[in-house]
Write a structure and sequence with these properties.
This protein is α/β, with parallel strands linked by helices and 380 residues long. The protein has 2 domains: 236 residues, TIM Barrel; 115 residues, Lyase, Ornithine Decarboxylase, Chain A, domain 1 (Beta Barrel). It is 33% helix and 21% strand. The chain contains 12 helices and 16 strands. Strand 7, helix 9 and strand 8 form a beta-alpha-beta unit. The longest helix has 19 residues. The radius of gyration is 22 Å and the shape is elongated. The structure holds pyridoxal-5'-phosphate. Pyridoxal-5'-phosphate binds next to helix 11.
Length: 380
């Protein structure tokens, strides 16, 4: 079940037992999300992008049902291996900017699949993981997605063949391309266009004698936060149909979804720890904020569904976190400006329940001012 549907009495019981702030997590929902994507993307091998949420209970649950992991660092590799993953079969190192110490560590334990998008990364991989398999990441359109990753990552199409040739010349084994359409992508056309660009690169590479056999279609699969119109099955069908049109079935596919697997599998429960009226506005202060679970409110103007355990009449509120920084306010509009949010009247000790808090919340939280990230409470 989506834990946002938990009755308020159950949430209050969990708070009595565990305190606040807490993430209330359904492992069953994580597994259900993985299986739904796995079914909708037949013949695609899924490597969960553990940067979305690396908590051990989530990694173990996904490993048990056959997911691999996309890792970005030695820390993530160690966490995945501790959850049961095998470095050679279950891990891909798909970040394009890698610490060379982490490349060497990965190579040393048998991880053999690295992604790159520039010449210096070829040098680093060839030095620290000689002979490794590599994917070339392409910059593709991220239009309409929430997080635009191609601003920082990916080679242009005209750079692709020289970069593939350079990898081969340095003893690496170029075996595919990868792309990322941007996180929280709401338009399947982004994947269609990216597959077309991949086709162009496959054809140009084969003229240079480089015959590749895999496409990594990245992540980007969305989560419903408020009222987004999302049909994952339809999106995946568009991708799979277009893949068959452009590639037959000779080329294998992998994907690195993060957000879609964990986003709606966790809620946050945070408590009112202070309240005030400032310049005529009602402020509520909680035991979690933008230095904890709400960083993406600042970075990407994310907005999450919210409810509370009060049944009083609604009032407009500014919602703030506990730290000493004035940027620690998580009621913000689509432009990122502080705004008021209407909630049933709340006071000290009341609980705010925030939905779809599984992805890029705990993973991005800091320990600023000595506040620890929320604890995990698994309900199944
Ligand atoms: C290399 C890479 N793969 C996969 C992902 C996961 O993307 P998403 O959570 O949008 O599925 C990301 C997100 O930043 C990424 O950088």
């Amino acid at each position: 079940m989506n834990p946002y549907e938990l009755p308020v009495e159950d949430i209050e019981k969990l708070v009595e037992q565990h305190g606040t702030p807490i993430y209330v997590v359904s492992r069953q929902k994580v597994v259900e999300n993985f299986r739904r994507l796995d079914r909708a993307l037949p013949a695609v091998t899924i490597f969960y992008a553990m940067k979305a949420n690396p908590h051990v209970g989530i990694l173990r649950a996904l490993h048990e049902v056959g997911a691999g992991f996309d890792v970005a660092s030695r820390g993530e590799i160690e966490a995945a291996v501790a959850a049961g993953a095998n470095a050679t079969d279950d891990l891909i190192f798909a970040d394009t900017v890698k610490d060379p110490k982490h490349i060497a560590y990965a190579h040393g334990i048998g991880l053999d699949d690295f992604t790159y998008d520039n010449a210096s990364e070829i040098t680093q991989i060839a030095r620290y993981a000689p002979g490794a398999k590599v994917h070339l990441r392409l910059a593709v359109s991220n239009e309409g997605s929430v997080a635009h990753l191609s601003k920082k990552f990916g080679a242009r199409i005209d750079e692709a063949v020289p970069l593939l040739v350079a990898a081969r010349e340095q003893g690496l084994r170029p075996h595919g391309v990868s792309f990322h359409v941007g996180s929280q992508c709401l338009d399947a056309q982004r994947y269609v266009d990216a597959l077309d660009q991949s086709r162009q690169v496959f054809d140009a590479a084969s003229r240079e004698g480089i015959n590749m056999d895999q496409i990594d279609i990245g992540g980007g699969f969305p989560v419903r936060y408020l009222d987004e119109d999302i049909d994952i099955d339809a999106m995946c069908k568009t991708i799979v149909d277009h893949y068959h049109r452009r590639f037959g079935s000779d080329i294998s596919l992998v994907a690195e979804p993060g957000r879609n697997i964990v986003g709606d599998a966790a809620i946050l429960v945070t408590k009112v720890i202070s309240e005030s009226v400032r310049e005529g506005l009602n402020w509520l202060y909680f035991d979690d904020g933008t230095y904890g679970s709400f960083l993406d409110v600042l970075l990407y103007q994310m907005q999450y569904p919210m409810r509370c355990n009060s049944t009083r009449a609604p009032k407009p509120y500014v919602l703030a976190g506990p730290t000493c920084d004035s940027i620690d306010v998580f009621s913000r509009d689509g432009e990122g400006d502080v705004c008021q949010i209407e909630l049933p009247e709340m006071h000290l000790d009341d609980l705010l329940v925030v939905g779809s808090m599984g992805a890029y919340t705990y993973a991005e939280s800091t320990r600023f001012n000595g506040f620890e990230p929320p604890r995990f409470v698994y309900i199944d």
